[in-house]
């Protein structure tokens, strides 16, 4: 008798993450330098950890309010105001979540109805398309133009909009390309979003990691606050991936809808992590600044090295990823990554896992020490030279 599968068709049809599949192979190998995973190499600053310990010592081991500790929501609201000139009411317009990941999931589930289309700009963070589908929506992908440094344009949105479009996922600075959009570049995007009455889900988790120009938060643009859910968290700039803490801010009705889902599915974000985050908000600035300076130095080093070895790489304005073209080698992204891993033990992510327009590119995370980066670049250079002998003088 054949055994029927109890897995829902919906879930069965989701593709497993291309990043994970690749890193399971890398994990079995020795002496691998990983430029693969998108997480800081820094340990969480000690004062954040210490405050979390203290909270446990003091017996803070129960649930918090569903939306998160009010002291933390107040600090987040102040932080958004001081850094991005945003004005959110801590009690009504901020929710603390289990990573930015849960904020994305909640935001989508709060706005999407069956059959609604949600625009996702590729190359994109690998979670967007599957979370749109899991929320019952239809992901509609736009391919950002490599010749325009993968910058999203209002025209590209205009072409993708249909009467069923409900929302758009924005990510600035972008994972995986590191592309950064300035205020002037965001303004026409805001206009088109307004014209078509869309909700913007603005993932700003890398907002602190912008290197060359000041950051404009999407909801700070004229008319956008009423139609944007701002998504962010502590994983990246605060080096807190394992604490699983993020947040969203937005219009009261949308945040209330997210809290409703959250209270039934998660109850609240981890209490001890909320205490660490409170310290991060109150006294985290110097540590964030130091890590920022390291990332900036590493970015300059990796971008120069990649270009020197013949892998064309525009200077990424933000996040901690370089996204060079590997077209000069004649290899596909998958072959490049696979052969580089096996021959030189350097792990990068093939660009096609982030969407169609990522083919011909690789993602190199520079959230690793300069020493390791230096070694990785030497190995990669040797690999590239072996594939492109004509370019070697
Ligand atoms: N958004 C983007 C763009 C990311 O790159 C990531 C992590 N790779 C996340 C969200 C998820 O972050 P968190 O750890 O806070 O869930």
From TrEMBL:
Its EC number is 2.6.1.-. It comes from the Bacteria. The keyword Transferase applies. One of its GO terms (molecular function) is pyridoxal phosphate binding. Residues 31-379 form the Aminotransferase class I/classII large domain. Pfam families: Aminotran_1_2 (PF00155). GO terms for biological process: amino acid metabolic process. Keywords: Aminotransferase, Pyridoxal phosphate, Transferase. InterPro entries: Aminotransferase_I/II_large (IPR004839), AspAT/PAT-like (IPR050596), NHTrfase_class1_PyrdxlP-BS (IPR004838), PyrdxlP-dep_Trfase (IPR015424), PyrdxlP-dep_Trfase_major (IPR015421), PyrdxlP-dep_Trfase_small (IPR015422). Belongs to the class-I pyridoxal-phosphate-dependent aminotransferase family. This is Aminotransferase. It comes from Halobacillus halophilus (strain ATCC 35676 / DSM 2266 / JCM 20832 / KCTC 3685 / LMG 17431 / NBRC 102448 / NCIMB 2269) (Sporosarcina halophila). The lineage of its organism: Bacteria, Bacillati, Bacillota, Bacilli, Bacillales.
């Amino acid at each position: 008798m054949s055994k029927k599968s109890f897995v829902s068709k919906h879930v069965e049809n989701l593709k497993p993450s291309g990043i994970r599949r690749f890193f399971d192979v890398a994990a079995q190998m020795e002496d691998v330098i990983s430029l693969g995973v998108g997480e800081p190499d820094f340990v969480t600053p000690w004062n954040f950890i210490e405050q979390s310990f203290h909270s446990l010592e003091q017996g803070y081991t129960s649930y918090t309010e569903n939306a998160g500790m009010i002291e933390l929501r107040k600090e987040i609201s102040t932080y958004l105001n001081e850094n991005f000139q945003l004005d959110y009411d801590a009690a009504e317009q901020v929710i603390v979540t289990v990573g930015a990941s849960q904020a994305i999931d909640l935001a989508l589930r709060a706005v999407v109805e069956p059959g609604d289309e949600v625009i996702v700009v590729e190359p994109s963070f690998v979670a967007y398309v599957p979370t749109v589908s899991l929320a019952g929506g239809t992901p509609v992908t736009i391919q950002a133009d490599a010749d325009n440094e993968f910058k999203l344009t209002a025209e590209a949105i205009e072409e993708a909009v249909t009467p069923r479009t409900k929302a758009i996922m924005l990510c600035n600075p972008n994972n995986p390309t590191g592309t950064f959009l300035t205020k002037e570049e965001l303004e026409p995007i805001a206009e088109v979003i307004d014209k078509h009455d869309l909700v913007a889900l603005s993932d700003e988790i890398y907002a602190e990691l912008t290197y060359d120009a000041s950051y404009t938060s999407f909801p700070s643009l004229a008319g956008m606050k009423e139609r944007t859910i701002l998504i962010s968290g502590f994983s990246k700039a605060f080096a807190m991936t394992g604490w699983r803490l993020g947040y969203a801010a937005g219009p009261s009705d949308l945040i209330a809808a997210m809290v409703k889902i959250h209270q039934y599915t998660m109850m609240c974000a981890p209490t001890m992590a909320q205490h660490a985050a409170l310290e991060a908000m109150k006294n985290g600035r110097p540590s964030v600044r130091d890590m920022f300076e390291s990332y900036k130095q590493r970015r300059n080093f990796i971008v120069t090295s990649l270009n020197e070895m013949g892998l064309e790489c525009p200077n990424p304005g933000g996040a901690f990823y370089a996204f060079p073209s590997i077209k000069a080698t004649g290899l596909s992204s998958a072959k490049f990554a696979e052969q580089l891993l096996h021959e030189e033990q350097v792990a990068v992510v093939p660009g096609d896992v982030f969407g169609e327009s990522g083919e011909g590119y690789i993602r190199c995370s520079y959230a690793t020490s300069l020493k390791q980066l230096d070694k990785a670049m030497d190995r990669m250079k040797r690999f590239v030279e072996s594939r492109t002998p004509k370019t070697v003088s």
